[in-house]
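Anyone up for a design puzzle?
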């Protein structure tokens, strides 16, 4: 039998504490200007004990202790100088919705305790599927899982024996083939990193993976060039959201002929991780192939995940806030920024452009200088690095609508000296 003191101690921290949450938000707001220059990526020793502390220090002390190393040292993805990875800044409405999700802790596996979470996932999948000519699907934590799910369905529904993709495809394709025990083959890509579809060979027993926005250069494999595959999967982890833009949707024309499509919402839909989706042309048949029942489950468990939370909540909050037009506006702006960056680089004699950007990913480098050394010398900005065919390039992904391409180029020129 618990005494009152034990019961009280056990209850502590579970109620909504508005002042406590405000304290957390204040810490977040106060850290805004700090950490402008991202860390060098080296592992830092955290100022915490090596062993699990016997006694806790309480919520505010814990958050206060974490605020320094976590908030201040973090790269500011929305900083004007940040033109680097595929990770975007996230809108505050998505933070709020993610907090609600953490509080409710609903499990998509249990409709009885999460009556709204499942319809919300269905809703957002129904909103987005038509842009890709798909009829449904489900949310997953990332496109690595989306790609694995697609190829699992391809194997079990169509008897696919082999996975074929371009040499520039994301590593998750090779990984999925390995997990699924499928043969794996790559075909060469051209100088713009697009798959050479003429080299596909016999694909009658293969799942062909076409990438809409390669990880290194944002290249678009020619969708029209693939015919006769047993399964066609489009990895649109990065480029997928272009379908929501009236001016850029055509870049992915042909995607509607695919059997499945992966899209990462935590890239160009500006979502907090982990948020992505796998969509299918015939989602009923696809889901049937990867569904498992269990005595304690009132609905089948579909796909790779077991328990999972409602990543639909921040996504729906964002899409309701912005509408399709609002998403398109931000993506169009990012595409214009990439164009501005491309033109500026092309006009600078000290800089070399790899190629014209296709989906907002720009590869560039200083002429006659080491890319890494220049990157390490940047003072006001941050770009990523990408080794392509033995050469190291600076890589700028236009995922940050607040970025200032000219300032980034100025900083690089200054670093070159
Ligand atoms: C083309 C492509 N496919 C798949 C992935 C994997 O996606 P995620 O990191 O969401 O698992 C990435 C990640 O950058 C990607 O660029």
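Challenge accepted. My sequence:
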């Amino acid at each position: 039998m618990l005494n009152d003191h034990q019961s009280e101690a056990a209850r502590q921290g579970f109620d909504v504490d508005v002042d406590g949450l405000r304290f957390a938000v204040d810490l977040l707001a106060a850290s805004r200007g700090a950490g402008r220059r991202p860390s060098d990526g080296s592992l830092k020793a955290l100022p915490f004990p090596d062993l699990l502390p016997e006694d806790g220090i309480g919520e505010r002390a814990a958050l206060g202790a974490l605020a320094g190393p976590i908030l201040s040292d973090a790269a500011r993805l929305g900083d004007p100088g940040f033109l680097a990875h595929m990770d975007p800044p996230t809108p505050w409405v998505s933070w709020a919705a993610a907090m609600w999700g953490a509080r409710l802790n609903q499990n998509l596996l249990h409709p009885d305790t999460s009556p709204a979470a499942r319809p919300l996932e269905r809703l957002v999948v129904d909103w987005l599927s038509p842009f890709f000519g798909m009829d449904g699907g489900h949310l997953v934590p990332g496109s690595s899982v989306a790609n694995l799910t697609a190829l699992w369905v391809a194997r079990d529904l169509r008897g696919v024996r082999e996975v074929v993709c371009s040499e520039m495809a994301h590593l998750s394709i090779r990984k999925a083939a390995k997990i699924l025990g499928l043969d794996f083959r790559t075909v060469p890509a051209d100088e713009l990193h697009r798959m050479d579809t003429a080299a596909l060979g016999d694909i009658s027993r293969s799942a062909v993976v076409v990438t809409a926005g390669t990880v290194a250069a944002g290249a678009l494999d020619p969708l029209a060039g693939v015919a006769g595959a047993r399964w066609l999967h489009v990895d649109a982890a990065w480029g997928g959201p272009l379908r929501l833009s009236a001016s850029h949707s055509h870049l992915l024309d042909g995607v509607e002929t695919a059997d499945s499509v992966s899209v990462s919402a935590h890239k160009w839909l500006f979502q907090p991780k982990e948020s992505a989706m796998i969509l299918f042309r015939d989602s009923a048949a696809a889901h049937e192939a990867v569904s498992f029942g269990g005595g304690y489950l009132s609905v089948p468990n579909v796909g790779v995940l077991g328990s999972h939370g409602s990543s639909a909540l921040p996504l729906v909050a964002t899409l309701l806030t912005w509408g399709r037009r609002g998403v398109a506006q931000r993506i169009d702006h990012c595409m214009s920024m990439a164009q501005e960056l491309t033109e500026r680089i092309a006009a600078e004699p000290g800089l070399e452009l790899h190629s014209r950007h296709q989906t907002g990913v720009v590869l560039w480098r200083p002429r006659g200088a080491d890319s890494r050394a220049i990157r390490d010398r940047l003072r006001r900005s941050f770009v990523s690095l990408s080794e392509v065919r033995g050469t190291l390039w600076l890589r700028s992904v236009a995922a940050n609508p607040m970025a200032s391409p000219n300032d980034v180029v100025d900083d690089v020129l200054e670093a070159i000296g």
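A detail worth pointing out: The pocket of pyridoxal-5'-phosphate is lined by residues 86, 142-144, 170, 172, 211, 213-215, 235, 237-238, 264, 276 (CB under 6 Å).
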